[in-house]
Amino acid sequence: MGSNLGDRQAALRQGLRELAARGVEIRRVSSVYETDPVGFLDQGSFLNLAVEVSWQGTLDELLEHCLAAEQALGRLRYLKDGPRTLDIDILLAGGRMVRAGRLEIPHARMHLRRFVLVPLEEIAAQAIHPIMRLSVQELLAICPDNSGVRKVGEMSAVEPLDPSGYNPAASRDKEV
């Protein structure tokens, strides 16, 4: 999940709320990282984080919820790799591989992007990329990207995401 327009921290927080409101269980949330833009470089830096979710529906339905959350925060798709209020990508799905329509799992470029791998390693270092057969930790060690990724804070510094009292810091102790 990433944002580089407006109040980036608020966009990430609201993105988590939007997913939770759609029935997506937020299990773990990484720290927040400030990252250099990749691709289209003439834009502000991003705030990024990784999220582990539990979802009982199909991956297509999960993608639709991610896209709806982006739209709820005003996401416009007008420039590839351009600025965005909120970007949510599905990176991995329990070892499954999917290439159908807009759904591509594992994410095709995740292994090439430090801004993806650094937060993901924090919450799922031993998760295996089903095509490359390497852990997230191993992918980060060989990642050719040398763009800046700086830890800037925790999402636990914000109020609970839902009335049930979800606490991102407490959720880090759960198993992946």
- Tally of separate helices: 5
As a whole number of angstroms, the C-alpha radius of gyration is 15 Å
The main β sheet shows up as: 4 strands, antiparallel
Number of domains: 1
Q: What is the fold-level CATH name, i.e. the topology?
A: Alpha-Beta Plaits
In one word, what is the shape?
globular
Q: Which structural class should the secondary elements be placed in? A: alpha+beta
Q: What low-confidence regions span 5 or more consecutive residues with pLDDT below 50? A: 157-176
Distance between the termini: 18 Å
Average pLDDT number? 85
CATH architecture: 2-Layer Sandwich
Could you state the order of secondary-structure elements as H and E?
A: EHEEEEHEEHEEHEH
Q: What percentage of the residues does DSSP assign to strands (E)?
A: 15-25%
In helices, the fraction of residues equals: 25-40%
Give me the count of strands: 10
Identify the strand order in the major beta sheet. Answer: 1-4-3-10
**CATH class category label:** Alpha Beta
CATH superfamily: 7,8-Dihydro-6-hydroxymethylpterin-pyrophosphokinase HPPK
